[in-house]
Amino acid sequence: MANHTDQCDKIIDYFNGHLTEEEKDSFELHLANCSECQAELAEWNALIDELPYDSEPVSPPEGMKERILGNLFEDSDQDSDKNEKPVLPIAPIQSDKKTVKKKSRPSKWMVPAAAALLLSLGGNFFLYNELQEQSAQLGQSQDTIDELLQFVTLTPADEGGNAAGTASIVRNGSEVNVVINASSLGPLNEDEVYQVWLIEGETPQRAGTFKSSETGEGTVVFTLDNFNPDQWNQIAVSHEPDASSETPEGSVVLSSEL
Amino acid sequence: MSEPHDIELYKRLVQQDKMALETLYNRYEKLIYSFSYRMTKDPKLAEEVVQEVFMKLWKTHAVYSEEKGKFSSWLLTMTRNMALDLIRKQSKRPTVEYEERDSLQEASETPEVMLEEKEQTRLVRRAVTKLKKDQQHIIELFYFQGLTHEKIADRTGLPLGTVKGRIRLALKHLKTHIHEEGGNVSG
Questions:
Q1: Lowest mean per-residue pLDDT among A197-201, B36-40, B50-54
Q2: What is the dihedral of CA B10, B14, B18, B23, to 10 degrees?
């Protein structure tokens, strides 16, 4: 019985991770048969629902998000096959020579998602690396000719103010790219983004996501696989609280029939 | 209180969906950082904790399932363990007797803190404040600093055999106060 008590007294060091492997094993053996320790431990584990909230909310240091996500994604990009890289997430490199040789890529919705992520990270080195890579790719010779399938002028909705924009649907070989150019967009707060939606009947589907520049300009390019010209009847740009909206949550600023 | 959305995001991040990870990051950055900072009292170490927690989530797919309880609880448990781990590795860590609430940099804005989280923070902090000083102290040493049984005894001047009882008593009072404040007491 004395031994039993000794083990029960190790519960604090067990909970706080101070036991050696051997001591830990021995305590766990004891724990399996000691209902008192089991109950105590369950209670302490449940504190996680309360005590962390006794922390003064502190603003993380500037740039922490970019550093952390940058590190994670940089590592995983190095690990993963280059084929999985998203293509052409943003505008600055957009030009009449924008043909980029693409290899196989994940589903079409992966592209806007990746673009949104890149943009929301806002000018960090992850984005920089992407641009570097794409710039290198742009040097390659162009072996297909772009064909403009449709060009529409986007008209501002009530919420859009003076916003203006265009959408071009361009076929390049077997794939179709959509290019949105917009200007006079209102300012965005930290997490807010502009989200492009393609609307089939009444159902909006996420397309490109972008942030506007300080002067209110924004551009996004995204690729549609298996484009069917009759599938979409409308294109719209909305102002979203963050880049995760699965359906439009904010107000539409620009739109056009297709 | 259930957060099916977290689970959905977790499932997506297991498929290496960066966007899902970022959404979870945005949702929990502030809470995890604040908790880590509270434990480590060091902004650099706190950032390292956040980094390691998300690294585990992203790279090694620390395995979460709904049987493990709420996703947020699971994430916070991982945060606490990681913080204790890094604190231990940081041998020259300054010892801080008490939580220095006034010296912590107060957040100027909390746009990402969900309303529920803010409410929970307000409630728990009020409940802790209602505890006697020695009870707050023992919770600080035991839970936030994660000290050994022996060190808790040293710091509080309590006999070894009394420490566990005092922790139990402090937690019992805490639960009562949380209950009075209108919170749901789990466990």
A1: A197-201
A2: 0
Q: Within an 8 Å CB–CB cutoff, is residue A5 touching chain B?
A: no
Rounded Cα gap, residues B23 and B2, in angstroms: 17
Residues A163 and A201 in one domain: yes
Closest residue by Cα to residue B13 from B71, B58, B50: B58
Instruction: Say yes or no: A76 and A111 in one domain.
Output: yes
Question: Rounded to an integer, what distance in angstroms lies between the CA atom of residue B86 and that of residue B46?
Answer: 9
The CATH topology of domain B113-187 is Arc Repressor Mutant, subunit A (1.10.10)
CATH code for residues B1-91: 1.10.1740.10
Per the structure, the complete domain to which residue A228 belongs is given by 64-257
Give the minimum alpha-carbon distance from B38 to chain A in angstroms, rounded to a whole number: 6
Q: How far apart are CA A207 and CA A199, in angstroms?
A: 10
Q: How confident is the model at residue A102 (pLDDT cuts 50, 70, 90)?
A: very low
Total of domains in chain A: 2
CB B170 within 8 A of CB A54: no
| Tens of pLDDT, residues B52-76 | 999 999 987 678 888 888 899 999 9
Question: Which candidate from B19, B80, B125 shows the least CB-CB separation from A243?
Answer: B19
Are A237 and A180 in contact by the 8 Å Cβ rule? The answer is yes
Residue A94 shares a structural domain with residue A9? no
Measured between its terminal Cα atoms, the distance across chain A in Å is: 81
What type of residue sits at position A142?
Answer: Q
What would the two tokens of residue A169 be? 């649907």
Rounded Cα–Cα distance for residues B56 and B85 (Å): 14
- Give residue A126's pLDDT: 45
- Does B22 contact chain A (CB < 8 Å)? yes
Q: Is there a single domain that holds both residue A38 and residue A78? A: no
Q: Quick check: A62 contacting B, CB < 8 Å?
A: no
Q: Does residue A73 sit in the same domain as residue A42?
A: no
What's the length of chain B? 187
In a domain, A59, yes or no: no
Q: Which residue has the higher pLDDT, B125 or A226?
A: B125
A109 and A235: one domain? yes
Residue B8 contacts A where some CB pair is shorter than 8 Å: no
Q: d(Cα B185, Cα B172) in Å, to the nearest integer?
A: 11
Asked if A223 and A96 sit in the same domain, the reply is yes
Q: How far apart are CA B55 and CA B46, in angstroms?
A: 14
CB A168 within 8 A of CB A256: no
Q: Which of B19, B49, B58 has the highest number of chain A CBs within 10 A, making it the mutation to test binding with A? A: B19
